Structures are given as C-alpha cells and as structure tokens.
Amino acid sequence: MIFRIFDGKMSNHAIDIYFFTMSPPSRSVLLLMKTLGLKTNIKTINILNGEQFKPEFIKVNPLHTIPTINDDGFILSESNAILKYLVDQYGKDDKLFPKDNKKGAIVNQMLNFGTSTLLPRFAATHFALMMGGTVDEQDKEKLKEAFDYLNNFLKESKWLAGENMTVADIAIHSTLGNIVAAGIYDLQSYPNLWQWFERTKNALSQFGYEEIMQAGSDAFGHVFKTKVNA
Ligand SMILES: N[C@@H](CCC(=O)N[C@@H](CS)C(=O)NCC(=O)O)C(=O)O
C-alpha cells in the first residue's frame, strides 16, 4: 500500500486540466493534483502547434495560457492561483500551502519568484537559442543570479518555504527540470540547489514524478537539443 503523506479530501469528480507536458507551470499543477489524490481529465493543448489559439480553448481562457483548470464549472488560470486554490479546496491539511500569514507569504514569494523571475530568465536564455539566435551575456548572468539566490537560500533551509515541502518546491523544481534537461547550465555546481532538486524529486516519486515531471522535461530537452543543433 502506498503511504500517502499528502492525502487530499475526497473528490468524486474529475477536474479538467488544460496541459502541455513541456510547460513547467502545467506540470506543477498536474503533479499537485496527483499529490492530492485528485481525479484528473487531461486536455492536451500542444502549444508547439498553436493549439492554444483554437476557439474552443479561447472560450475557456481568452488569454490562451496553460495551465487552466475547470473544476466543475469553476475555471481558473495562472498556475500560482491554481496551486493555492487546489490546496485550500482539497488539501487534507495546509502543509503544502500554510494558512499562517507569514509562512504563506514566503510560499507566495517563492511562487512569484518562480513565475516572474525564474521562468522569464529561463525563456530569455533558452528560447533565443531555439529560434537560432544567440543569448546576451547579461541574460546568462541573470539566470545564474537566480541559481545563486536559490542555492544561498537553501544553505539554511531544507525546502524553499519553511520546514515542509510546499507547492513552491514543486513549481520551481518544474522550471529547473527543463533547464537541467536542456543541458546548457550545470546545476550540480550549485550544491545546495542540486541536493534540494534531488530531495524534491524523491519526495514526489510516489505521486507520478517520472510520468509527469521527468517525461515532460525530457521531452523539452529533446526538442531544445534538436532545434539548437539543427
Ligand atoms: N503566468 C502564467 C504563465 C503561463 C504560460 O505562459 N504558459 C505558457 C506555457 S509554459 C503558455 O501557455 N504559452 C502559450 C501562450 O501564451 O499562448 C502561469 O503561471 O500560469
């Protein structure tokens, strides 16, 4: 029997998730759903083929971003909002997103760092290469600054926001997964960050890490390397 440390409240219905495997915020939401033991109905939106612009999806999310969920008619986009909603609505307890104001604020700080700093810096350094261009030195340094920030933070702390793993660990791990798979930056040279990366992977292994995180980042790594070496 699997010991489910993050058992969710029982939910009989499946929640729709508009998802693409290579998208870090999509993966963190899906992995959280699995961690909470929720039933999911995955609706793949292949953004490489422009499927996010299909009228059916624009009706659901006019901003055409994934992840988006539809929980029994309640439609929500923006991964950080979705992560909080799911823990509040279905978490057996508040470990993955503490209700305590200050603890919750640190989770928010890290989630916002993930989507407002890390994800754009990842995009600036990797998407230009995929399009056949070059990357500014300044953009490389900015990405390394983000690694340094996380590495220093993790000197004092086992997890990114307090004494337990939270949704911030899942979200930031997801973006770093694409960076590791692309193979340009060596995260192993940031020892605290690398140990935490492995720790998070182990903690999530029983909730579908391989099928969701590993498979998705590997798929991104493959496309990245194919385009860059073409
Ligand atoms: N801030 C959003 C970002 C979502 C986002 O940009 N998703 C990308 C994939 S990683 C996407 O949907 N791109 C397609 C598009 O914007 O048309 C979130 O955290 O959910």
Total domain units: 2
Question: How much helical structure, as a percent, in the residues?
Answer: 55-70%
Helices and strands, in order, run as EHEHEEHHHHHH
The largest sheet has its strands arranged as 2-1-3-4
What does this structure look like?
This protein has 230 residues and is of the alpha+beta class. The chain folds into two domains: 14-90, Glutaredoxin (3-Layer(aba) Sandwich), CATH 3.40.30.10; 101-228, Up-down Bundle (Glutathione S-transferase Yfyf (Class Pi), Chain A, domain 2), CATH 1.20.1050. 57% of the residues lie in helices and 9% in strands. It has eight helices and four strands. The longest helix is centred in the middle third of the chain and has 30 residues, at 101-130. The structure holds glutathione. Glutathione is lined by residues 23, 25, 47, 52, 64-67, 78-80, 115. Glutathione (GSH) binds at residues 23, 25, 47, 52, 64-67, 78-80, 115.
Distinctive features:
230 residues, alpha+beta, Glutaredoxin, Glutathione S-transferase Yfyf (Class Pi), Chain A, domain 2, 2 domains, four-stranded mixed sheet, 4 strands, 57% helix, binds glutathione
Secondary-structure blueprint:
Elements: E1 14-19, H1 24-35, E2 39-44, H2 55-60, E3 68-71, E4 74-77, H3 79-90, H4 101-130, H5 137-156, H6 167-182, H7 191-204, H8 209-228
Parallel strand pairs: 1-2
Antiparallel strand pairs: 1-3, 3-4
Helix pairs in contact: 1-3, 1-6, 1-8, 4-5, 4-6, 5-7, 6-7, 6-8
The structure holds glutathione.
